[in-house]
Amino acid sequence: MKTLKSSRAVSTRYVGVGRPHSLKVCRAVQTTDPLQVVLGWAGSNKIATDKLTVANDVATDVPVLVAAKDLPAGDAILQVPDSAWITADTAQKAAIGKYIGALEPWLQLTLLLLAEKGQPGSSLSQYISSLPSQPNSPLFWSDEELQMLEGTQLLESVMGYKQFFFEQYQSLDEQLFSPNRAAFPVERFSYGSFCWAVASVRSRLHAPLDADPVALVPLADALPHRRNANAAWKLKSAGLFGKGKVLSVEATRAVRKGEAVVMDYGPEKLDNALLLDHGVLDASSAKGGYSLTLTLPEDDRYFADKADILERIGLGASATFGLVRGQEPSLEMMGFLRLMQLSGSDCFLLESIFEAEAWSHMCQPVSAANEAAVCSAMMDGAREALARYSSSIDEDLALLRDGGVVAGSRQEMAVQVRLGEQEALDSLLGFFEGRAADLAALEYYQERRLKRLGLMDEEGKTTYDSFFKDGIA
């Protein structure tokens, strides 16, 4: 087995008692909240907010945006024009703009937040003041809290990200901050402040405005994350000849007055990815799993031939597959594994005569030896990965079942991550153990070929035995 790396996938396991999806009406907020501030920003920018108000969530007692009236499915709850988005163009129009134009958009937004934070006259002051001062991403967890993630892919990602951001800061400090200290004062552009701004930007970026273009959308990005969402972001054309854009928050189902307006930050993302990027995890509807990264070894004598096959189907020499509890590996993953393990006499399938159909052969068992090699590699890798966890599946299930963790706590998040990853690996191990025990019952390339030629029947018996028996051949 090759690299086993971080992310999570869908799981339907037990996640706690008394948390069914149901309508929850929030109670009114008693004190001024950052959400009220950003609502004020929306009003000053002539953005209609009559369908939203702020109330304390019943479950968490945290102020959230709720429906101010009953809203039908498909209703545009909030619309924010592109003129109100915070983009790289916004950053380049700021005082630091002339210094940062060559940076990636997310870095430009990061430095913009730092430059404008605490500036009374800034047009972004209301938005920035609404951002949490302490992000909930594991990037900001204490060493003791990170110990709860021991053995997980998430911890591996956290450490990798920390190193990456530190190197980014060092490069910026050396090449940009220090030579232009008047524009980038130390007290404002410290490493700690940089990490806060990076986490704030990452946590607020959502599709379809998280790639091209990259944009922060005030108020719209304040919706809480829930897997059972009732709203979603939609990008639409606006203005004269449709040249402008508007971010529309639309109801995906009917929303009752007083119900929290919530969105799924990443329907296709795994929980540990959302926790890392956004600092959120919906324990009531967990999507636990494991991401398996497979890479063709460059020292494989047939590397070029195998890479060509993968390129023809849109894959590279490295690919990542989501593993989910109770779900068999995908056809694509099995094909990649067989291609990786293809060796010896089976390599005739790499010859140019098979070029057009090589991948289709990989998507079915090639030979008993090849399939056995796949099973062995995956079983070894899964066992090795499972051995790294500090707790077992049963222990983590017991913690959730018996109330051993506080709902919404970082401990609960850590347990959910550990459990989701281990369950996916355990399912993977079980699948390949069963397959290894059933190798004799599988149908391989040579049998399929003989059947296509009419030289073998469906029971696996040759159709030309009578030739020899009757002395014909």
Give the SSE map.
Layout: E1 4-5, E2 27-28, H1 34-44, E3 52-56, E4 63-67, E5 76-81, H2 88-92, H3 97-100, H4 105-116, H5 125-129, H6 143-146, H7 153-177, H8 191-204, E6 231-238, E7 244-251, H9 271-278, E8 290-295, H10 303-312, E9 318-323, H11 331-341, H12 358-362, H13 368-386, H14 393-401, H15 410-437, H16 445-452, H17 465-469
Antiparallel strand pairs: 1-8, 2-3, 3-4, 5-7, 6-7, 8-9
Helix pairs in contact: 4-8, 11-13, 13-15, 14-15
Note down, in words, how this protein is organized.
- With 473 residues, the chain is of the alpha+beta class.
- The chain has 3 domains: 4-10 and 286-442, Rubisco LSMT, substrate-binding domain (set domain protein methyltransferase, domain 2, Alpha-Beta Complex); 27-85 and 218-259, Beta-clip-like, CATH 2.170.270.10; 88-123 and 131-204, set domain protein methyltransferase, domain 1 (Alpha-Beta Complex).
- It has 17 helices and 9 strands.
- The strands form 3 sheets. It has a 3-stranded antiparallel β-sheet with strand order 1-8-9.
- Strand 3 and strand 4 (63-67) form a beta hairpin.
- The longest helix has 28 residues, at 410-437.
- The protein is elongated and about 85 Å long.
- The relative contact order is 0.14.
- Mean pLDDT is 89; it is low at 1-25 and 27-31.
- InterPro entries: Rubisco_LSMT_subst-bd, Rubisco_LSMT_subst-bd_sf, SET_dom, SET_dom_sf, SETD3_SETD6_MTase.
- Residues 297-425 form the Rubisco LSMT substrate-binding domain.
